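Tokens for Toprim domain-containing protein. Go.
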Amino acid sequence: MPTDIIVLNSVSLIGRSIELLNKYQDVYQYLNHDKAGYSAAEKLKEAGIQTIDASGFYQQYNDINAFLLATKQQVPRQEIKSQTHERPGHGLHR
């Protein structure tokens, strides 16, 4: 099953993405844990877009980048690779 991924480089693009996101059944969000991220999630909710908050794995960090940087510093790359198990992607489904 094909998966589409839409990356918004700024939460200021939420307004422009609403029409497009309305076409999808499953929308996973990986927003920052800050005022802007919470505001973006609220805008999606107000637009009637049912989202799945997928940010739980980096809940101790402000965003995915901070999580990845911390992970990179804690565990050598080779060790991360050996611990990684291939999982099917969830993505966005129409």
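The beta strands are 27-29, 51-53.
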